[in-house]
Write a structure and sequence with these properties.
By secondary structure, the chain is an alpha/beta fold. It has two domains: 173 residues, Rossmann fold; 188 residues, Rossmann fold, CATH 3.40.50. The protein is 40% helix and 23% strand. β6, α3 and β7 form a beta-alpha-beta unit. α9 crosses α10. About 2% of the residues have low confidence. The chain binds adenosine monophosphate. The site of adenosine monophosphate has 17 residues, from α5 and α6.
Length: 369
């Protein structure tokens, strides 16, 4: 993802796809024009990249020039009448091909037709690299189209957002959702994830999703999901991925307006981590960091036995279940450290100390992201 001014953009059309589209345009146009020498006219500023690449691929001799449409002074709206600057050459009797980077509503085309009406050209053809069929409102024929795209704002390859982005060799599409902060709070059972998540969600205005809490809620309400999950949870085993991933997706979708999430107890397997990445991608977002609370096993057992006296959780009730949960963590979950480390997203934090001290250590990591 990239940021230009205040907006975020995600990759949309690769440099290779653009290259292939331009080759196709060059071949199509040269076949139609034959041996005549055409005048290719680029409309500045956006077309500078496409024109440069296009003429390099055009297999026969051609002429190239650029024109610019500028608003009359004092007139702000892009809908207003524009005047042409830069057309100095006599084009009478010539075959002219307008090369556009993008045709959107077609307003620019309207001006071009108006201006060229009096130039006495033999033929006026319109070619565009990108074309938005849903946005195009005019009747002028577009003779050659490179790539059809949906009605979304794009930047790159000559196209800008308030002056920025023209230099990017690929095309990016605007992200419709705002940038989120998404944290995976990680660590073995009893590390204090739930306690810290409560504090962080308020401080950073994030939605806290604890898969363990959602399962317990379902058990309490005797739903089908609860009954299924209970058989695994009571033994300290993990609930199957398919069930957990489906539930997590639904929880995220229920919070469509969230500024970000703290995932507590999820992901616990590689399949879950991959599913989470996919889910975040659909939100034009990603996981920013996995922050792990590091606590010794014996401290964990001691903490959980103590919690079991008041929590009422069957999986906190005896030492063998607790040790099985810790074992599940090391055999299935701890490997996720590698998953996030390889993306430079893993941050270990000492999970022993007062709640306040640990909260400060976590905040320091989040503030640095
Ligand atoms: P927790 O409250 O995070 O300690 O989770 C309690 C129990 O819920 C775990 O021991 C698992 O049985 C189940 N559970 C919670 N999250 C997951 C998950 N991401 N994948 C599989 N099982 C989970």
């Amino acid at each position: 993802m990239i940021k230009l001014h205040d907006k975020y953009f995600k990759p949309f059309i690769s440099a290779q796809e653009i290259d292939a589209a331009i080759s196709k345009l060059a071949n199509e146009i040269s076949k139609d024009i034959g041996d005549e020498i055409p005048v290719f006219i680029g409309i500045l500023n956006g077309s500078f990249m496409v024109v440069s690449d296009f003429v390099k691929k055009y297999p026969k001799p051609c002429e190239v020039t650029f024109i610019k449409l500028a608003s009359y002074e004092g007139v702000k709206s892009t809908e207003d009448i524009q005047r042409l600057i830069g057309l100095t050459q006599d084009l009478s009797g010539r075959t002219v091909v307008i090369l556009e980077d993008i045709i959107d509503t077609g307003n620019t085309l309207h001006e071009i037709h108006r201006i060229f009406k009096n130039e006495g050209v033999k033929a006026l053809k319109i070619a565009t690299l990108f074309y938005k069929p849903e946005a195009y409102k005019k009747d002028f024929k577009i003779h050659y189209k490179g790539i059809e795209i949906p009605k979304k704002f794009i930047v790159g390859y000559g196209l800008d957002y308030n002056g920025l982005g023209r230099d990017i060799p690929e095309v990016y599409q605007i992200c419709t959702t705002q940038k989120m902060t998404n944290i995976v709070l990680f660590g073995p059972p009893g590390a204090g994830k739930g306690t810290q998540a409560e504090f962080l969600k308020d401080k950073y205005n994030l939605v806290h999703i604890s898969t363990g809490d959602v399962f317990r809620y379902n058990i309490k309400n005797e739903t089908a999901l609860g009954t299924l999950a209970k058989s695994y949870m009571d033994k300290g085993d993990l609930v199957p991925d398919e069930v957990t991933i489906k539930m997590l997706n639904a929880e995220v979708d229920r919070n469509a307006d969230a500024q970000g999430f703290i995932f507590d107890g999820f992901p616990r397997t590689n399949a879950q981590a991959e599913a989470l990445d996919k889910l975040m991608e659909t939100k034009d977002s990603n996981i920013n960091a996995m922050i792990a609370l590091e606590v010794d096993d014996e401290v964990l057992v001691e903490r959980l036995l103590k919690r079991g006296k008041t929590s009422g959780r069957p999986d906190d009730a005896n030492e063998s279940i607790i040790r099985n949960r810790i074992k599940e963590y090391y055999t299935k979950t701890a490997i996720l450290k590698d998953y996030y480390s390889s993306q430079d997203k893993y941050f270990g934090v000492d999970g022993v100390g007062s709640i306040q001290e640990i909260a400060e250590r976590l905040s320091k990591v989040i503030d640095s992201l």
